[in-house]
Amino acid sequence: AEKRNPEALRDYNAVLALDPKASHIYVKIGAIYQRQIKYDEAMVYHKKALQYNPEEDLAYSNIGLIYFMQLKYKEAKNAFDSALKLNPDYALNHFYQGRTLIELKQNAAAIKYFDQTLIIDPDDNEAIFYKSYAIGNTGDYAAAKDVVSKYILKDQTNKFAYNNRGYYNKMLSMWNEAITDYTSAIKLDANYVLAYQGRAPVYCFKNL
Q1: Alpha-carbon Rg of the chain, whole angstroms?
Q2: Which pLDDT score, from 0 to 100, does residue 208 have?
Q3: How many Å apart are CA 83 and CA 65, to the nearest integer?
Q4: Crossing angle, helix 39-52 and helix 57-69, to 10 degrees?
Q5: pLDDT score at 150
Q6: Which of 1-15, 27-41, 116-130 is the least confident region?
Q7: Residue of 95, 91, 27 whose CA lies nearest to 63
Q8: For 163-193, how does the pLDDT look when each residue is reduced to its tens digit (9 = 90+)?
Q9: Which of 129, 190, 134, 138 has its CA nearest to residue 158?
Q10: CA distances, 8 to each of 12, 34, 79 (Å)
Q11: Nearest to 109 by CA among 93, 92, 97
Q12: Does residue 131 contact residue 111 with C-beta atoms inside 8 Å?
């Protein structure tokens, strides 16, 4: 069904007129603006929620997501830290904290957050993908390959997964496997430049 945001905002504001300290309503309004990519407006409402209820964990979660989308990773990390202290069982907070730490080049720490995500939600395939990426960033290409292969078993439509596994195979001197993975990425997107760049030098190696 089509989202009717104006009507939703009207009713939420009616609630606030009756109960101005209803912190969870500020979060809901902030989330509407957030989905519309109106981050400044969204931030006002999430911070208002925290003003009335400093333990409104979803406000911290959403603030973290806004900072993440704005590439403000240090601020995002702080917001997710606060959210996780209040609600350590929310998988999305662990997932985005992991992604934030990757951007901050803290890959070993990121892996732990993806592991926690998967403890809470074992079917979160995106957590598996980003865990493999973080492992690869540490230089453990064999382990990264094993993890991303689990992702690919569930989803054969992600060109980035094949491209990453192609890179891991290349770093492990598994030339034929690397070519196969890069080719799979190119089949998914014939304009995927990184896959061509990754595959081209592999043809120059011996023992193909």
Answers
A1: 21
A2: 58
A3: 11
A4: 160
A5: 97
A6: 1-15
A7: 27
A8: 999 999 999 999 999 999 999 999 999 999 9
A9: 129
A10: 6, 14, 27
A11: 97
A12: yes
